[in-house]
Hints:
This protein has 103 residues and is of the alpha+beta class. It has a domain at 1-66: Beta-lactamase Inhibitory Protein, Chain:B, domain 1 (2-Layer Sandwich), CATH 3.30.1450. It is built from 4 helices and 4 strands. The protein has helices at residues 2-5, 63-66, 79-82, 85-99; strands at 10-11, 18-27, 38-49, 55-61. The protein has a 4-stranded antiparallel β-sheet. β1 (10-11) and β2 (18-27) form a beta hairpin. The radius of gyration is 22 Å and the shape is extended. The chain starts with a helix and ends with a helix.
Amino acid sequence: xINLIGNPxxxxxxxxxxxxxxxxxxxxxxxxxxxxxxLIENNVLVIRFNKLxxxxxxxxxxxxxxxxxxxxxxxxxNPVTRGSFVTKFLQSVxxxxxxxxxx
Length: 103
C-alpha cells in the first residue's frame, strides 16, 4: 500500500492495522475576501489490514458522506488550554477594561 499511494496520514490510536488517507481540495477566494474559499472535495479512505498485512476492508467517504456522520457533543477537558489562575485572572481584567470601551 505504501508503494502504491504512500504512507497513511494517520493510523488508529489503538489499532495499527487501521490506516487513514485524506484528500482535500479547496478553491481560493480573492485576496481581499477569504470567505470565498469553497470546499470542492473532502475525501477519506479508511483501510483495514489483517494480521498478515493483507487488505481486509476499505471504505471511502466523500464530502456528502461527511454530512451523514453523527459527531459526539462531548468535550474533552484539556489541562493545557485550560490555563492557570493567573491567565484567567488577567483575561478577565482585560475583558473588563476593554469591554465597555467605545471606539
